[in-house]
Amino acid sequence: EVVYNDECFFRVYDGLAGTELAKFASESRTRIEYPIVADADNDGNAEIIFGTSNESGFCNNADRMASEYNNGIEMWGDANDLWVSARRIWNQHAYHVTNVTEGGSIPRFEPESWKPYNGRLYNTYRSNPRSFGVAPNLVVQAIQITSPGATCGQLNDEIEITVQISNIGDLRVGPGVTVAFYGDWGGGT
């Protein structure tokens, strides 16, 4: 898809056919119109960020109601966090993937953006590439098993398992990852 914001509307277009998929009233001045796509809330999925301004006053949006009219910065995302991944950074109007690192530093000698970078050809401006061929890799870093209330030589029916899990993969995971433990705790082993 292609996202576009002008003086009166925020729109989403089909990237291949060019047909309008969605249109929302979003008045703005030219200085803040262009939307960006980035993982703004660090949940591993892209969001769309764009500015609105209630001072423009020259749009006659019949579908706009005063109670719905926002002024400021909008951030839209999928309610179920199913949108593709994106970088967490967008540093300037002329953004391209080689002019800023994921951590926000600016390369002293910027790689040529039209040549392969980290094994991929991006060759695009004002576009935040999604991650290809990357995945999370959740590993157990530490585990501690205790039995509260147990005394030396006495077994207890209750155990507590404390685990530190780290993601050493290239793709972030959002909150709410479920961890489960399976095993036969009977028989004294």
Q: In words, what does this structure look like?
A:
- The protein contains no helices and eight strands.
- By secondary structure, it is mainly β.
- Among the domains are: 2-76, no CATH class; 133-189, no CATH class.
- The strands form three sheets. Strands 1-2-3 form a three-stranded antiparallel β-sheet, with no helix packed on it. The chain has a three-stranded antiparallel β-sheet with strand order 4-5-6, with no helix packed on it. The chain has a two-stranded antiparallel sheet with strand order 7-8.
- The model has no long low-confidence stretch (mean pLDDT 79).
Number of strands: 8
Q: Tell me the β content.
A: 15-25%
Low-confidence stretches: none
Question: What general form does the structure show?
Answer: elongated
